[in-house]
């Protein structure tokens, strides 16, 4: 059997999976998010490790002799720093921490966006690891001068379990220290930070076995010390593996609180408009990703916060009987936006309704607005020459057949859902299988283990009507931007 460990922002999720992909057991352990100041987010890596060990004890009970390998998915970009005695120097600074605005401005304006893209393939944003290191250097120099090892969150778990100082290509891609196209550190960026190269982990492919379970930990868990430790991937790449997005041109849209479009590619592609992130993928190739901040989150705001209604079954049932209304539009920029407009000051907008309209017309406009915004990012990826043949839908929103059909109609491409909901943790388990040699490639593992549940084919008349409405939708934000 194989273990997938998904280190999230508020919990660690562990799953035990048979070699045929059947999930035997799932365990979750929570931990607190530390907010020492407004817009700062931190966690103690030691808590990650303690909760993971407790989770493993529960997960493997009765199956200790069957465990072959453990692999990881994890929250990306977080900064974990250790001294020469492997003691954590400070709390980890997380992916959603916003303290590095000055450092990001320095990188993008002083170093320059063009130079950053040439060296790494991406630009600086507040979540990435390099700006965090510069912040520590500027604000906590006594700590900075003691740094011996720099890690990503999941890699701290791998290090504690195996004793091997390593990371993978997907997590390295999100540090702004790594030349994604060449799959090597950017010496220029290492010089910008000002630490010796020995402080940075060895970068390996996501399915690489980096070592074995340390004997004392194996003894504590009643496991064999021959259990392999496979380095794993960042949560978005592991999640893509977990839903089978590994062949070039395959695309997933995650309809969670945020909306994430993830597209696998055989070639590395840079978005010079700065809306997309271009990273290495967990299958040895590459991917592009866009993130909008409120997808299902916009639906939750409208339904629960505004209307005090949480029955989504009846919501979508009524929506299925509501015709497309050409005049009502919704911009889902409720907390600023990343893709497709990259404007932290953008705000939501509901426009075009009149006395003839009912609540269900506005309900439909909310879902349409989110989907139109996703289409904008989807089109940006297509503009880079990526041939997207089918969309795989995941997340809570994908449980709605009405929304799934709307996505197929608006995108003009077949959409499908799959029969597995474990996401990144399952992707980590697949990487453990590949690292153990059960499968030769990540692609062959996904083909064997992941199966399509439902198909949604575009309806041409509806697609035509949506296309006309979409062309009007994309003109609204540029027109009203000055108001905000």
What features would you describe in this structure?
- With 484 residues, this protein is an alpha/beta fold.
- The protein has a domain at 2-236: Nucleotidyltransferase, domain 5 (2-Layer Sandwich).
- The chain has helices at residues 45-60, 101-120, 129-139, 141-144, 153-162, 169-173, 187-193, 215-221, 235-243, 296-306, 312-319, 359-383, 401-411, 424-435, 442-449, 460-480, and strands spanning 2-7, 11-17, 23-30, 42-43, 69-74, 80-82, 92-93, 149-151, 166-168, 178-179, 184-185, 202-204, 209-212, 228-230, 233-234, 250-255, 259-265, 277-280, 286-292, 329-331, 349-351, 390-394, 415-418, 452-456.
Give a brief outline of the structure.
The protein is of the alpha/beta class. It contains 16 helices and 24 strands.
Total of helices: 16
Give the helix level as a range of percent.
25-40%
CATH architecture of the domain at 2-236: 2-Layer Sandwich
Instruction: Work out the radius of gyration.
Output: 22 Å
CATH superfamily of the domain at 2-236: ATPase, nucleotide binding domain
